[in-house]
Specification:
By secondary structure, the protein is of the alpha+beta class. Helix content is about 30%, strand content about 20%.
């Protein structure tokens, strides 16, 4: 009996016997549509044959060939082979996240733009700063946060939101840092980022994230955000997009730092880079503004002395 590998795999997954199927493929070969038709018949109440037993009868002789037994397949057997899945209810946090993400993607038309920044100088300055007491624990995320604050001040539309057929532009720039927890996310918010020195951003961010992960955030830690940053740079992720937090107009996704060829002074050299992808609500933010924001953000990260001004 000829059967295609795909058809055989589908039959095995759904527990159906294809031995009596007449193939519609070339030379009578059983193909995907034949098995799918068999599965469809079983779901609608049709019965599926089981193989004939090869056991001997009581006299020791082979039994005469009998009609095949009829074994209907249950929905569970068709879809979920026994022992290969488990059901776990969502936690309250996970359910809230699920509802908010569905709300965002169903109401805000997302538009994405990506740039690549060379961050050798950024990493060099971080190495210099981190030995100073006021910069203890400073990370690339803290520096990206400061850069975003300055870029949002120059392009306030990115800091805006859509509400009741209007563009709402907040007076302050409050950036939420998406923070992973064992079963969900919290978003501590650093207020008036554009006005804070880099050292203070590092201190506030570190303290708020520690409180969030300990399950003891202050009420004001999690409110008032106007823009968000999602950084999964600790993972080997070169590029990703993020879903806008409801009530905001944009979010920045920050990749891991990679070593790759770059052109410097007309020469190809190895540099450290990261990719920055902005997701914007296309109802209020167009590609031109998103591109200008990313261009300025790239400049700030590639010339990090500007973050210390």
């Amino acid at each position: 009996m000829k059967i295609s590998p795909l058809a055989k795999n589908i039959a095995k997954t759904h527990g159906v016997d294809y031995s009596q199927v007449s193939g519609s493929g070339e030379g009578g070969r059983i193909v995907k549509r034949d098995v799918e038709s068999l599965i469809s018949d079983s779901k609608s109440g049709a019965q599926v044959s089981s193989p004939v037993s090869n056991a001997t009868n009581n006299s020791g002789s082979m039994p005469r060939k009998e009609s095949n037994q009829i074994v209907p397949l249950t929905a569970r057997e068709q879809i979920h082979p026994s022992g290969q899945f488990k059901t776990e209810p969502l936690t309250r946090m996970r359910e809230t996240i699920a509802n908010r993400m569905v709300e965002s993607v169903n109401t805000a038309p997302h538009f994405y733009a990506t740039t690549r920044a060379t961050v050798d100088q950024l990493l060099h300055i971080r190495e210099i700063l981190k030995v100073e007491p006021e910069y203890e624990g400073i990370t690339v995320t803290h520096m990206v946060t400061k850069a975003c604050g300055l870029a949002l001040r120059r392009f306030p539309r990115i800091n805006s939101k859509y509400e009741n057929s209007s563009i709402i532009e907040p007076q302050d720039i409050n950036i939420g840092i998406i923070t992973a927890l064992p079963d969900g996310l919290l978003i501590p918010v650093i207020k008036t980022v554009d006005k804070l020195p880099l050292a203070e951003i590092a201190q506030e961010s570190r303290a708020m994230i520690q409180r969030a992960r300990a399950g003891k955030p202050k009420g004001e830690d999690l409110s008032g955000g106007t823009f968000s940053i999602s950084n999964i740079g600790k993972s080997e992720v070169e590029h990703f997009t993020a879903i806008i937090n409801p009530g905001q107009g944009a979010i920045l996704a920050v990749s891991s730092i990679q070593e790759e060829p770059i052109v410097k002074n007309g020469q190809i050299v190895v540099g450290k880079t990261l990719r920055l992808t902005i997701s914007v609500d296309h109802r209020i933010i167009d590609g031109v503004i998103a591109g200008e924001f990313l261009t300025y953000l790239k400049k700030l990260l590639e010339e990090p002395v500007l973050l210390l001004a």
